[in-house]
Amino acid sequence: MIISNLLISWYLANKRELPWRQTKDPYTIWLSEVILQQTRIAQGTAYFIRFTKEFPTVFDLATANEDEVLKLWQGLGYYSRARNLHYTAKYIVNELNGVFPNSYKSLKKMKGIGDYTASAIASICFNEVQAVVDGNVYRVLSRYFNVKTAINSSRGIKEFKEIAQNIISKENPGLHNEAIMELGALICTPKNPNCGACPLSGSCLALKKNKIDSLPLKLKKTKIRTRYFNFLVVNINNQSTILEQRKENDIWKHLYQFPLVESNEELSHESILTSDNLEKLIQDKSLQLKLFNQNNIVHILTHQKILAKFWIINTKSDHKNAVEWNNVSNFAVPVIISNFLEKFR
Question: Which is the catalytic residue, given 33, 128, 159, 178?
Fold first, then answer.
């Protein structure tokens, strides 16, 4: 189709030189696509380089332990991506003899690989005619065709997939997919798109109707949930502390944190001092409790707002599961803990 030819021609002349574009190896492409979900290119590239250096093949990733993977992922957020990445690597090695699935249907059966990632790998690595639809593609298509269906609705997801599938190049599906995503990232941006440099501007309906700024449409976001986190930072003789692994099916699963008291509102010094959590943790009547940060540290997640305080507990009472402060950096922790440690230690 004409639109595909325009996209590919523009892409070949204007694409960014990115490390994962030097190969069609499915493991490498998979790794890059998972890392770049919900992540800016600048940040994602650094993680991609570290991951490919530490785990150059799917076999290396499969034989790593989960703590290693989570530690390397630390700071990237959405940790379920890392856990699913590790799980699928082990599955490919142990159940598929290390042979990467080579079709859209077989890829979608893998844990953590949805429509977008399966389409990207299948088209780029195996030349399968499967259109990708991500945030960039939604934006390009909604504006070009002046589509007013909400992109985050069930109807919209189906409609945009059909549109993308209808215009994809049958000869160069991978190149087409990379081109339309790149156009959305560089030219058809959310704000102040550079329509003058767009290869599709001559037939863009939203541009013609002056609707660029109102598209794409989205349904209203889910209400944000506010949570109060009180971290108990036990400081044993200035030598060790206590860490716990999050086991619940919640944010930061399998990451480590200081013992936590979660509440529905801010807690006072007295509330922490008399809490059951602290009594179970340390049996020391002479312990000293002080608040590290007077103001809440605000940490925003998808549909959640964490308001965190760190309570320092100085004690001489040892703990059977104590971790030396020098070893804390070896544990994978949420970024909010990592930032605290940089200031505290």
Answer: 33
